[in-house]
Amino acid sequence: MNAWNAKISRVDQPEPGLLSFSFRAEGRNEVLLLVMLPGALRLGVLDERPRGASASPAVSQLRRHIEGARIVAVETSQRAARLSLTRADKTRFLIAAPRKPYGAWWLCELDGSVVLRSPGAPQTVPAEEGHLNPISPEELRANGSTALDAHRSVRRNQLERLLLRHIKRVSKKRDAIVGDLERAATAADLHEKASLILAHAAEIPADALYFEAASWDEEPRLVRVELDPRRSPAELAQDLFKKSKRLKRGLDVAPGRLEAVEAQLAELSRVRDELGDRSPDELKAKLEALGVPVTAPKEQARKRRQAGTRLPYREFLTADASAVLVGRDAADNDRLTLRVARPHDLWLHARGVTGAHVVVPLTKGKSCSAETLVDAATLAAYFSDLRGEPVVDVLYTPRRFVHKRKGSPVGSVTLGSEKVIAVRVEPARLQRLLENEKKAPLK
Prior knowledge:
Layout (H helix, E strand, L loop, with lengths): L6 E9 L2 E8 L2 E10 L2 E7 L10 H10 L3 E7 L4 E7 L2 E8 L6 E5 L5 E4 L15 E2 L2 H6 L1 H41 L2 H13 L10 E5 L7 E5 L6 H41 L6 H10 L7 H10 L6 E5 L5 E5 L2 H11 L5 E5 L7 E3 L9 H13 L8 E8 L3 E2 L10 E2 L3 E6 L2 H9 L1 E2 L5
Antiparallel strand pairs: 1-2, 2-3, 3-4, 5-6, 5-10, 6-7, 7-8, 8-9, 11-12, 13-14, 13-21, 14-16, 15-16, 15-17, 17-20, 18-19
């Protein structure tokens, strides 16, 4: 390529796994494409630059290093591609390899030391087995459309896998709601057993494991009630009444949740069945509109690591500037409740559904104001599966009454004491709280 005296005028990364180098040679403008997605290491030259995303910080740095440089040679093997570049009588190599998920590149000195590398790339350039073979300008021009097609094909496959992963996740959520409905169907049975325990409490022998009694139906049937010798019949009955009430409340909410999830699943399945020949850009836009993550999990994890130490909660400020901490996910709920919150802090959670743990930090000996309690309960309702409901029951208790049993699922806790507030979710209050989220300081 040195015969062209090709000078790089612009560097872009229009799509993940694709670098483009705009240059002028032989009196015309052309673009060198470098594709480095897994299974698609390709090079080619086109007349026009592919459009796409704006430059990332890494690409902006790469621009400062190589824009204005001249391309001396382009070489490739099965495992890597290398561009030899000169600027101000200084030669450097840009090396690319098809690593998961979106490839990796390194800008190196002649001695192999790394000047700059792409986010997530190893600190050292992988050793190349075999020889790099030069590619002529004519071959690159002939391979331009092939290289771009290879990138589009692999990128489209990546997006399809992300769609299928999301469908699987939503399907699990639907199955969980169906399970909740099945459990809610036992509410009447639990209520009946609790009533029978209270009615026959005086007749139940001490340390009995169960007792049997006739139901109150028009045609009585024999009902077997399992007992717990460690608890009195009255305590067990109250527990069954509470569980029955909770299940009945879930029975009121779950059908609506199930309908919404099934509608979402139907739309996702329709997109999957109608993929056809959608371009990666069209598919990406459609997935983003449906709320499907379009970044590979490995890349998401890398970005979280790059962000440094991440707090397990989001922080919101109430009207009186009190802080309310909201767990980000199930694992963060555990960290917030068990490691961050102090025994005297107030702990909240939407009743009977999956949701965020919410903590109001309090000074020891001080109580939570009524307004702060309503604000915190509003956030607990919003960051739960009951988001969108006008009225939500929220449990609250001092943190010292919140315990985690050995072997319990992530984010699952038990309460030794609790109170309930039925919070009416006021749009104006919620908007104020969301607008007053305290952002983490930039590192």
